[in-house]
């Protein structure tokens, strides 16, 4: 960690240790973190701390934040935020209004190294991993923009980057996000999506209590490898074996996301094969008709084709949903993030 240390990089226990080493009582850590995750901008606002301690904190530690570059609002109410990080790098987050609540789509990396052909973020390549604080700060930074009648309750790691490729920082951020001394989100309301870093899937379930989404998108290795190069390293058999080892809590399901690409992975026989692959899983399926973009050489299937694909899966008794495209007019939909970053 760099000096001065960012308080948002510390757990409660770590901050207690730091304060004790300065001769401060450990209970001050909870007081400080209460203010930090209320979203104060500086230590001077922590009015239940002595002036002496506030001055010492200003000298020894810091509070990082994100700088808002651009905010766009879609016709459907979706908001896309472009944040500038302290080193000048840029990331995006998306706030999605839903019935009675809001969901925030979080980024975990600046860019992405996995090269999925249907995703604009992949065209950037990977610049770097996000720090724990940069992940947590996305949640804090959107708070002023959350509609009063749709509180922010759900977080999904489905923005820029592959979360499991930044495993340590993502797991640490989840700890802060769910901790009573942190942002206090329900474990049932945090979802991590992966393109398929198979060895880390069971480990994720051991180190964090989250919902798991697998970005599947094909039912055979040839098609999946052509769309998602990670499949050459961890083919379907290995990926599904890792999913079976994921310690799935009772009454929960693994979500398998499937981006439908016209003429590539939308055949009825592929829907049948998908039901075969999922045999034995407590699973649900999210179908995502491709969100078109001029830079990507794909198209969405016709609506009737999507419904046919859905019905085949439903007949196999799996919950299956067609995910509505949100924020497409501002390039905030699935696979579109960072498409026109400047």
From TrEMBL:
EC number(s) reported in the record: 2.1.1.192
Note: Reaction proceeds by a ping-pong mechanism involving intermediate methylation of a conserved cysteine residue.
Protein name: Probable dual-specificity RNA methyltransferase RlmN
All residue ranges annotated as the Radical SAM core domain in the record: 98-329
Species name: Desulfobacca acetoxidans
Gene3D superfamilies noted in UniProt: 1.10.150.530, Aldolase class I (3.20.20.70)
Reaction(s) catalysed (UniProt annotation): adenosine(37) in tRNA + 2 reduced [2Fe-2S]-[ferredoxin] + 2 S-adenosyl-L-methionine = 2-methyladenosine(37) in tRNA + 5'-deoxyadenosine + L-methionine + 2 oxidized [2Fe-2S]-[ferredoxin] + S-adenosyl-L-homocysteine; adenosine(2503) in 23S rRNA + 2 reduced [2Fe-2S]-[ferredoxin] + 2 S-adenosyl-L-methionine = 2-methyladenosine(2503) in 23S rRNA + 5'-deoxyadenosine + L-methionine + 2 oxidized [2Fe-2S]-[ferredoxin] + S-adenosyl-L-homocysteine
Membrane spanning residue stretches: none
The entry's keywords: 4Fe-4S, Cytoplasm, Disulfide bond, Iron, Iron-sulfur, Metal-binding, Methyltransferase, rRNA processing, S-adenosyl-L-methionine, Transferase, tRNA processing
Superkingdom in the source lineage: Bacteria
Gene Ontology MF term list: 4 iron, 4 sulfur cluster binding; metal ion binding; rRNA (adenine(2503)-C2-)-methyltransferase activity; rRNA binding; tRNA (adenine(37)-C2)-methyltransferase activity; tRNA binding
Family: Belongs to the radical SAM superfamily. RlmN family.
Positions that bind S-adenosyl-L-methionine: 161-162, 193, 215-217, 291
Record: active site: 92 (proton acceptor), 334 (s-methylcysteine intermediate)
Biological process annotations from GO: rRNA base methylation; tRNA methylation
Gene name for this UniProt entry: rlmN
SMART domains with a match to the protein in the record: Elp3
Binding site for [4Fe-4S] cluster: 112, 116, 119
Subcellular localization(s) per the UniProt record: Cytoplasm
Gene Ontology CC terms, in alphabetical order: cytoplasm
Cofactor binding: number and manner: Binds 1 [4Fe-4S] cluster. The cluster is coordinated with 3 cysteines and an exchangeable S-adenosyl-L-methionine.
Reported cofactor(s): [4Fe-4S] cluster
Function: Specifically methylates position 2 of adenine 2503 in 23S rRNA and position 2 of adenine 37 in tRNAs.
InterPro entries, sorted: Aldolase_TIM (IPR013785), Elp3/MiaA/NifB-like_rSAM (IPR006638), Methyltransferase_A (IPR040072), RlmN_N (IPR048641), RNA_MTrfase_RlmN (IPR027492), rRNA_lsu_MTrfase_RlmN/Cfr (IPR004383), rSAM (IPR007197), rSAM_sf (IPR058240)
């Amino acid at each position: 960690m760099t000096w001065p240390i960012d308080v948002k990089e510390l757990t409660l226990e770590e901050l207690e240790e730091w304060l004790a080493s300065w001769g401060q009582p450990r209970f001050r850590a909870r007081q400080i973190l209460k203010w930090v995750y209320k979203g104060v901008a500086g230590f001077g606002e922590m009015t239940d701390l002595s002036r002496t301690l506030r001055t010492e904190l200003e000298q020894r530690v810091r509070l990082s934040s994100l700088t808002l570059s651009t905010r766009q609002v879609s016709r459907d109410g979706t908001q896309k935020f472009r944040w500038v990080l302290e080193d000048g790098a840029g990331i995006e987050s998306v706030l999605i209004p839903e019935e009675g609540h809001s969901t925030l789509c979080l980024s975990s990396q600046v860019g992405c190294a996995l090269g999925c052909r249907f995703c604009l973020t992949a065209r950037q390549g990977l610049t770097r991993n996000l720090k724990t604080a940069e992940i947590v700060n996305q949640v804090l930074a959107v708070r002023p923009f959350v509609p009063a009648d749709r509180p922010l309750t759900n977080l999904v790691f489905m923005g820029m980057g592959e979360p499991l490729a930044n495993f340590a920082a993502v797991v640490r951020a989840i700890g802060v996000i769910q901790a009573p001394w942190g942002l206090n989100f329900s474990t049932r309301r945090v979802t991590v999506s992966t393109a398929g870093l198979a060895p880390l899937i069971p480990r994720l379930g051991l180190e964090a209590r989250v919902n798991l989404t697998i970005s599947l998108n094909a039912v055979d290795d040839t098609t999946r490898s052509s769309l998602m190069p990670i499949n050459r390293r961890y083919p379907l058999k290995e990926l599904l074996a890792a999913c079976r080892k994921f310690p799935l809590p009772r009454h929960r399901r693994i979500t398998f996301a499937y981006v439908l690409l016209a003429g590539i992975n939308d055949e009825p026989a592929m829907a049948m094969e998908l039901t075969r692959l999922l045999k034995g899983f407590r699973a649900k399926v999210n179908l995502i008709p491709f969100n078109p973009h001029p830079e990507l050489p794909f198209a969405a299937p016709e609506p009737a084709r999507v419904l046919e694909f859905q019905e085949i899966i439903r007949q196999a008794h799996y919950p299956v949903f067609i995910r509505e495209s949100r924020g497409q007019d501002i390039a905030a939909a699935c696979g579109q993030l960072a498409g026109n970053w400047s």
